[in-house]
Design brief:
Radius of gyration: 19 Å
Structural class: alpha/beta
Order of helices and strands: EHEHEHEHEHHEEEEEHEEEEEH
Strand content: 25-35%
Shape: globular
Oligomer: single chain
Number of helices: 8
Largest sheet: 5 strands, parallel
Length: 253
């Protein structure tokens, strides 16, 4: 980090004291990049913590007591921070996936795995500043069918018609464009979902995909979406109704 870059404000939500101690020990090697600004052991405390501290990064236990799966999903979706879920069972990774957490760390913590997980976040310490400028530029584009995509290296302004699909890969998202072009951003798919909310033809169809519905060429009952330029995507059951409604086909499936 340069002198003008700030540490990421980090919150830890963990009710298991042994796991908390292990996580704190593992994070000691990252003190130059992370500042732990608060901890909570219960869901109610977690709500107060994030409202008060507005963290950039949250470590959250998948096995938090007094927190249902639906409450956890709503909580994670409400956060502007990146979320790394933790757990002691491999099945907890499924819960992390269902809540659209940015990543998952399994106890006991592997130091190399933790470093790799944090790597993407630490490459973008100016995330808040970038997102502020992202909003400014997109506001200036007004009602046009253009979108500004910004990262630390610069920006692209795209016509939304150029976008075929977005595909998530852990902490990264690939954007496939007409002409066999591709852009890759260190940003979660849910961040793009928020940016694209004003464009009804850019729809999330799966935990790993956003597709441009104007590029859809076919759809199978197995949930396979075929797109132009030989691209494919998937449509999850929870997204199928909205997807079919766009084509006025919801009554046929």
């Amino acid at each position: 980090m340069t002198a003008i870059e700030m540490k990421l404000k980090t919150a830890i939500i963990e009710g298991n004291q042994e796991h908390l101690a292990e996580l704190l020990h593992a994070l000691k090697g990252h003190e130059k990049d992370l500042a732990i600004t608060g901890m909570a052991s219960k869901f109610g405390e977690a709500l107060s913590l994030v409202r008060k501290n507005s963290p950039d990064l949250v470590f959250m236990s998948a096995d938090l007591k007094e927190c249902s799966n639906s409450e956890m999903q709503v909580f994670v979706a409400s956060l502007s921070a990146k979320v790394i879920m933790t757990g002691s069972e491999k099945s907890d990774a499924y819960k992390a996936m269902k809540t659209h957490a940015n990543d998952f760390i399994l106890y006991p913590i592997d130091a190399q795995e933790l470093s790799e997980t944090l790597d993407c976040v630490l490459k973008r310490p100016d995330h808040s500043l970038i997102m502020n400028h992202q909003g400014d530029i997109n506001s200036s584009l007004g009602e046009s069918m253009k979108i500004a995509l910004i990262d630390s290296s610069g920006f692209h302004i795209l016509e939304t018609s150029e976008i075929i699909k977005l595909e998530a890969h852990s902490n990264y998202t690939d954007i496939y464009l007409v002409g066999n072009r591709k852009l890759t951003y260190c940003k979660m798919l849910k961040e793009f979902e928020g940016m694209f909310r004003q464009f009804s033809h850019l729809m999330r169809t799966h935990r790993s995909f956003i597709v441009n519905l104007d590029h859809v060429t076919s759809f199978s009952r197995q949930g396979i979406i075929k797109l132009t330029e030989d691209q494919t995507a998937h449509c999850g059951d929870s997204y199928k109704e909205n997807f079919l409604h766009y084509f006025n086909l919801s009554k046929l499936f």
